[in-house]
Amino acid sequence: METNALAPQDLIRKAVIEVAQLRENELLVVIETVESLKKQRARPNRESAKEIVAHARLRAAETSNLPREELMKKFSDTLDAIRAQAIENGTAIEGELESD
Question: Under 8 Å CB-to-CB from 71, ≥6 apart: which residues?
Protein backbone atom coordinates (compact mmCIF):
# COMPACT_ATOMS: atom_id res chain seq x y z
CA MET A 1 0.00 0.00 0.00
CA GLU A 2 1.41 3.40 -1.03
CA THR A 3 1.01 5.68 2.00
CA ASN A 4 1.54 8.86 -0.04
CA ALA A 5 -1.71 8.18 -1.93
CA LEU A 6 -3.88 7.53 1.14
CA ALA A 7 -6.58 9.89 2.32
CA PRO A 8 -6.03 11.45 5.78
CA GLN A 9 -8.52 9.10 7.49
CA ASP A 10 -6.87 6.09 5.87
CA LEU A 11 -3.47 7.29 7.07
CA ILE A 12 -4.86 7.57 10.60
CA ARG A 13 -6.37 4.09 10.37
CA LYS A 14 -3.06 2.65 9.13
CA ALA A 15 -1.12 4.43 11.89
CA VAL A 16 -3.48 3.10 14.58
CA ILE A 17 -3.17 -0.45 13.26
CA GLU A 18 0.63 -0.23 13.14
CA VAL A 19 0.87 1.25 16.65
CA ALA A 20 -1.54 -1.34 18.07
CA GLN A 21 0.89 -4.08 17.04
CA LEU A 22 3.90 -2.63 18.87
CA ARG A 23 5.44 -3.97 22.08
CA GLU A 24 5.06 -1.96 25.28
CA ASN A 25 8.52 -0.40 25.23
CA GLU A 26 7.98 0.61 21.61
CA LEU A 27 4.67 2.23 22.55
CA LEU A 28 6.51 4.44 25.03
CA VAL A 29 8.82 5.49 22.23
CA VAL A 30 5.84 6.33 20.01
CA ILE A 31 4.28 8.49 22.72
CA GLU A 32 7.55 10.32 23.32
CA THR A 33 8.08 10.79 19.60
CA VAL A 34 4.60 12.27 19.22
CA GLU A 35 5.34 14.63 22.11
CA SER A 36 8.60 15.68 20.42
CA LEU A 37 6.78 16.28 17.15
CA LYS A 38 4.16 18.40 18.93
CA LYS A 39 6.89 20.47 20.59
CA GLN A 40 8.66 20.83 17.26
CA ARG A 41 5.42 22.03 15.67
CA ALA A 42 5.08 24.61 18.42
CA ARG A 43 8.72 25.67 17.88
CA PRO A 44 9.55 24.81 14.25
CA ASN A 45 13.08 23.65 13.43
CA ARG A 46 13.86 23.09 17.11
CA GLU A 47 14.70 19.44 16.66
CA SER A 48 15.48 17.69 13.43
CA ALA A 49 13.80 14.44 12.44
CA LYS A 50 17.15 12.67 12.79
CA GLU A 51 17.44 13.87 16.39
CA ILE A 52 13.91 12.66 17.15
CA VAL A 53 14.63 9.23 15.69
CA ALA A 54 17.93 9.03 17.57
CA HIS A 55 16.17 9.93 20.81
CA ALA A 56 13.43 7.37 20.14
CA ARG A 57 16.00 4.63 19.52
CA LEU A 58 17.87 5.58 22.68
CA ARG A 59 14.68 5.43 24.75
CA ALA A 60 13.76 2.06 23.23
CA ALA A 61 17.17 0.71 24.20
CA GLU A 62 16.90 2.21 27.70
CA THR A 63 13.52 0.64 28.34
CA SER A 64 14.09 -2.74 26.68
CA ASN A 65 15.20 -4.37 29.94
CA LEU A 66 12.45 -2.97 32.16
CA PRO A 67 9.79 -5.29 33.54
CA ARG A 68 6.39 -5.10 31.85
CA GLU A 69 4.74 -3.63 34.96
CA GLU A 70 7.22 -0.77 35.08
CA LEU A 71 6.84 -0.12 31.34
CA MET A 72 3.07 -0.03 31.67
CA LYS A 73 3.33 2.35 34.65
CA LYS A 74 5.58 4.69 32.64
CA PHE A 75 3.25 4.40 29.65
CA SER A 76 0.21 5.16 31.80
CA ASP A 77 1.95 8.12 33.46
CA THR A 78 2.94 9.50 30.05
CA LEU A 79 -0.61 9.14 28.74
CA ASP A 80 -1.98 10.85 31.86
CA ALA A 81 0.46 13.74 31.41
CA ILE A 82 -0.48 14.12 27.74
CA ARG A 83 -4.19 14.00 28.59
CA ALA A 84 -3.78 16.59 31.38
CA GLN A 85 -1.91 18.87 28.98
CA ALA A 86 -4.62 18.40 26.31
CA ILE A 87 -7.32 19.29 28.85
CA GLU A 88 -5.31 22.34 29.92
CA ASN A 89 -4.89 23.38 26.28
CA GLY A 90 -8.58 22.87 25.57
CA THR A 91 -8.00 20.14 23.01
CA ALA A 92 -9.61 17.47 25.19
CA ILE A 93 -12.53 17.52 27.56
CA GLU A 94 -12.34 16.05 31.03
CA GLY A 95 -14.80 13.18 31.24
CA GLU A 96 -14.44 12.15 27.58
CA LEU A 97 -12.98 8.83 28.65
CA GLU A 98 -14.59 6.35 30.99
CA SER A 99 -11.57 6.57 33.26
CA ASP A 100 -11.96 10.37 33.78
Answer: 24, 25, 28, 63
20 vs 100: which has the higher pLDDT: 20
Q: Is there a contact between 56 and 33 (Cβ–Cβ < 8 Å)?
A: yes
- CA dist 45 and 62 (Å) reads 26
Query: Is the per-residue pLDDT at 45 higher than 80?
Result: no
Residue that wins the pLDDT comparison between 78 and 44 = 78
- For the chain, strand residue ranges (E) read none
CB 24 within 8 A of CB 75: yes
Residue of 72, 67, 68, 97 lying closest to 84 (CA atoms): 97
Instruction: Count CB atoms within 10 A of the CB of residue 13.
Output: 12
Q: How many residues in total does the chain contain?
A: 100
- Distance in angstroms (rounded) separating the CA atoms of residues 26 and 9: 23
Residue 5 per-residue DSSP state: G
Distance of CA 85 to the CA centre of its chain: 14
